[in-house]
Structures are given as structure tokens and as C-alpha cells.
Amino acid sequence: MRCGSGVDELAAPPVHGTGGAALLSSVRRFLAKPVAEMLAAVAFTLYVGFPLLQRSRMVIGFDTITYTGPNTAFTAESWRHLRIPQWNDSIFGGIPHLANPQVAAFYPLRFPLLFLDPIRAGGVMTLLHLLLLSVGMVVLVRCRLQLRGPAGFVAAIAVIGSGMVMSRSLQFEQFTALAWLPWVLIGVDWVVRSPRSTRWSVPFLAAVIATMVLGGHPQGLYMYAPFVAVWAVVRSLDAHAVDRLPLVIGAGVLGLFLAAPHLLPAALFASHAAHVHQTLQSVSARDYVLPARRVVQAVLGDVFAPNPAFPSSTFESVTSIGAAASALALIGAFATLLQRRAVRWTAAALVAVGAGALVLALGPRTVVFRTAFRIVPGFDGPRVPARWRDLVVLCAALLAAFAIDHLRSARISTRVATASIGTAALIVVAIAVGPFELPEAKTMVVWAALSVGCFATLALVRLRQRWSGLLGAGLAAALVLVEVGSVVPTNFLRVVEQPAGTAQASSAAANYARDTGGRIMAITIGVSSDPQYLVDGLRTNANVLVGVRSIDGYDGGVQVTKEWTDAVRALEGDEANTNDVLGGQLKAPLDPQMWARFGVRFVFVDRDVVAAPQTLVPAWKGPVVVDGPFELYENPAYQAEAHLYTSTQPLDASTASGVQIGALGDREASVALVDANQPALSCAGTCERQPVVLDRPHAGEMRAESDVRVPSLLVTDEHWDEGWSVTVDGRDAPVVRVDGFFTAVALAPGHHVVAWSYRAPGLRSGLILLALALLVCVAIAAGAPARLRRRFRSTTAAPPT
Questions:
Q1: HEC sequence for 717-767
Q2: Which whole number is the average pLDDT over 581-597?
Q3: pLDDT tens per residue across span 169-192
Q4: H/E segment holding residue 446
Q5: In whole angstroms, what is the distance from residue 191 CA to residue 208 CA?
């Protein structure tokens, strides 16, 4: 594959001689090699990601402790024991792990890091994906778009140095899909524009799509999929190869089949999800949108801002493309649209997608967003509008690369220069008179200097000298490098650095809860910048890192089931927000019998949050452990993780199960609420439930042994799901759902050995689809379709006369 030589450059005669001419020739030959730009981009990326390279320091953000780290820890623990991580019994009272695409259980790049500390593994993964994104941008620009150097380097550093990537780097689940996006675009372009390479390009595209899906955030995939589709169409139009689009679609289907072991379980479980759709009001929150008054600062950034999120005012809307890259993007758009017919469709699509994504990032305040919210399938899913800025950054970087290519060619027409400078002037006027919040004067001076410097290169290249194109492109690249490089020392990776060893369990109260067993409810500070506090305080989800199980959970997405939200009404009340953690909205005082029903043995309290814990848990034991501000209280009604119930009552499907549990009153400890189709049980004498010891060999497996005197239900404290199966004395038995939430089984009188196991619905079918897709990819790579076509043509050819 020939990369980025440029048509004009290939046709140019070699330069001979000594001195300046020889030096110029050497520089040109060096820039003609994309490897040089890859090395430069990698060097810049390592500079950006330097905090991730240090052995004595670790990059730890809030989500590192409360989301990425716990998911990584549970996934790695399962794979280390050669088990597919299907069921996580540590959050939400037990939950299907594969239901959440963000856990990336089958993501290939996870496997080499299984034996690393989960926090360290997250940092290594982030660095690997920064490099993947950086190199991908160079390959896309130089080897597929065939642009001259240093266009690939400029595109790479414009993306890697953007505020968007810096914020994404702290939310690894959102970053993986972005890192693979250039490689998907490369694969699409390869399929569309290289007919002779079909046997390799189609499997390559299928593989990168599958990898992107397996490791990607659902919102990122939702945003990037239409862009990939647009890219396929415009690249085929520019190449006059629309007939190749079916191959792109086929490769996409193969990619989805390769990712089926995770996609199918997640898709099937979505029917149980409590929060599949959002309202316009819920996505209008200030933290979720790009503030309209801050658009200029958000896009151009501020090299003097001490906090990278300051220019846009919210973490989710950090963009910061930079003034230099923005000016080059404007030049690249006009130069490509007005001068370069071969990629005119591509340039038009980049302009349209970038502008449209910026509008969508503003959220429901725009007619475009509200219209899409009403009519576009899936647009009302649980996502943050501001994250559409990803496509703004990517499109701007690619347009800036086109500008560098045109500067190298030294063929910028007067019409292009006039249109670019005139549009820039109109933008300046709009910023000056518009309702935008602007930064300090020194920041605007920097914007002006960088922009003028980029536009000055237009005059430089019009000198038509042998060196003018190279010098103009080099100057523009230097301006981008200086601007994005100047904000690296204050980027998010450096803001959240912590000493190595941070976030290791050290709380005596947490260790006691882990060693004693049973579930906990933690009531600590909801958001803290201290990662050690989050771990020691058993902040929701961080309990996974300590090995403690909880009835609570954080940011579960589709893992937050209707069954869970209905059941916990008994604990938090009808008006509670089930998008928030339980610990911040509990009804006081906590009823020991009710919490014991949910398997909760301990309440973990921070006295700085609850000044008088005794008012919250007046009937609880303790504190049994005091460790600094943390106090651990034990539930006196707690008996075991499983119980035998001998009395049942039908569950009304029209009323939340938690409401019905609360209505049981004094009988709540002895009556099991069952679905209408389950057999009714009644007791003649005492109806008190009896504790049963429950053994958990590992997550997704439970064992119990019990003597049963009368027909009973053996009820566990584990979340019910269709994937559960149970055997009684080695024979299959139906799983019973109790209280609309718990997993149980009916037992006849006698001695019984009961075993539950969890198998994710759809996993087996997904593995079969994976095997079939692999066979098809191997067949395509081996040339089987071509041989079949030749055989078909030979058998259908007319015999000679």
C-alpha cells in the first residue's frame, strides 16, 4: 500500500545538487514516509500519556474507582480462573455481567493484562488506546486519504491533544470505541477503494468492527455508526465505486457476528432494563450538554486555564480543538471543496457531520436535537448530548490534514484564500457581537496569533517557490503542535495522579465486613476526589475491589432492572430516584427485618455524612467496628443468605413489588410473595422462616443443603434472572421468583441438595455465531469466494461453436 505520496509529488522530478536544494530534497523524502510521522505522533502521545508510564504514580479518577476498576477486577478474576464472567454477585444484589457492554468481557486487549492490578491495568489500557488512536489517524490520513506529510502528524496531535481525548482518557469505557474509529474508517476505505485486496480488506474490516463493538461504549457506537455509514458512501462516490458498498455491509454483519457472544446477552437482557429511554428533561441537565454561551471557549480551548474543563464549564463537554487546528480546518474545507474534485464528497461530509455534531452537542435547546429525539430510533437512549463533540474533533482534525496537504502542494487558489479569510472574519464578528462568554484578553490574543499564523501560510505558499509549500505546511504544523502541547502539563491525566499503591483496601471496617460475609449498604460521600476514601468507605461499586457484596450499585445502565427498581421501593420509598445510589436516599430509621429480607447484614456509615448514625439504625448492633470516621453496624435480624419459607402470597403484577413487601407489615419475615402461576403455600403452625447456609463457590454458582419438614420455598438473597437454573438432588427443577426479585426453588419434605448455576441467555448462540463468522472470514482470506466465482463462470460459459 502506497501511503501519502501525493499525485503532484510523485510526478515531480528529483532534486539534485548540494546545499539548500539537497537538504530540501532530503526533508521531502523523509516526510514522504508515513513511518516518520507515526514515530513523531507516538512520541507526542507518550508525552501526553507520560503519567501512565510512571511506576511510582497512578492515574486514578472517580470512575476509575467506582466503575472501570471494579468492572476490570471482576472480569479479570473470572478469566484468571478460566470462567466466562457472566454473573457479578457484588452489586445490585447480583447482576448479569454480560448485560453491560461497557464491561468489555470479551475484549481481546484485556487478556494480556489479566494479572495486573485492576487500577494499573486500566492505566496501561488507556495508554495502549492513546497510541492506537494516534497511529490510526496517521495511517488513515497518509495511507488511505493519500495526503502529504506532515498531514498525518497534524491530524494525530490535533486529536490526541484535544480536550475531548483528555476527558475520555479518564473514562476508559468511552475511549475504546473512539480509539478504534480511525481503523474502522481505514477498513471501510480499503474495502471500497481497493478491489484487488478484497480477500484481506473484508476480514480486516470485520475484525476491527468486532473489536470496537466488544470494547466500546454503547453511546460511542451509536454516534460513530452513522458516521461510518456516511464515510462508506462518500468514499465510494469519490472513487466511483458504489457497487462496493454491499461488501462493506457484509463486513459489518460479519463484525457483529464476531461480537455476538457479548452483543446477544446484552440485547436480550435489555428487555429487563428499567432505564432504556430518557426524556428531553433528563438529557437537558447542565452537566450533560455543551453550554451554548461557552461554545467558543469549548472549541478553541484556553492554554492558560488551570483546569481543562474550565473553558467549557462541564467535564462532559470538554472539546478544545484549538485555534490553530480550527483555522486549518476552515482552510482545508474550502481548499478541498473548491479545488479537489477527487475528494469533494469526503470533504462535504466532514463539514456536514462536524457541524451537525456540534449542534447536537448543544442538546435539547436546538430544534435539530428535539426533532431527532422524537423520530430517530434509539436517539432517546441513556446518553449524554455533549458527547457528540467527539465527531466535531475528528472531522476538524481530518479537515486540518487536508489543509496541510494543500499547503504542501503550494496550490492554494485566490478563491480559496478569499473564502477562508472572509469566513474567518465573519466568525470573529459573530463571536464579538454574539451572546458568547469569552475568556481573558491574553487567551484571545493567543487565539488571534495562532489563527493569523495559519492564514499567513496561505500567502507564503502563493510565492510559488520550491520551498514555500514545505515551509508553509511545516509552519502550520508547528503552530498546532505548540498550542496542543502547551496544555498537556495541565491535562486531566496529570490532575488526578496519585502515588502507586493508592486505592488498596486498608479500612478495618471494610475488611471486617468482607471476612464476616453478607451484603452491605454504604452511606458515604457520593462524589469524592480522594480515591483512598472511596475504597475504604466502600463507596458503591468500589466494594467490588474489597470483595464485599452490596445490594446497591452505581451507573448500571441496562443492568438496573425493572425488578430491582420495583423491589427496592421497600427500602427507599416510592419517590426515590433509582438512577441514584440507594445510600443517598434511604428512609430512616432502617427496619432490620426489611433489610434482612434483602440479605443486608451491615450498614457502613461515615459520620461526616450521617452525624448521628444511631438515629438511622437505632435497632442495629454496634457500632461493631469503628475506624476513623467509618462505623459498621450489624443487622440483628440477619440470619443467613438463604431461608426456607412455608407461607406464600400472590404478587400483584400491577403494583411494584417493593410496595407490596412493605405492606406485609409484621408478617414480612415469614411470607414470600410469588407470581400468580406459582403454587400457594400455607403453614398450620409456626410460619417463621428458617435460615439455610448458602455456599458460593464463585459468582454465578450457589449450593445449599437442607432438611425440609413441610412443602417450602428455598429463597436466596440473589437477584432473579432468566439465566438461572437449579437442580434438586441432581434433577432439574423450575426456578421460582420471590418478591419479584429473589431467586428461589420449591422443595418437598425431605433432605435435599440444591445447586444453582447461571448461564447468560444468548451466550451459547453468540458463540455459535462467532464460530461461523470466523469460518467465513478464514474462507474469504483464503480466496474461496473468488474460486467459487471462477468455477461458476466456467460452468455457465457457452460452449465453443
A1: EEECCCCEEEEECCEEECCEEECCCEEEEEECCEEEEEEEEECCCCHHHHH
A2: 85
A3: 888 888 899 999 999 999 999 999
A4: helix 441-461
A5: 13
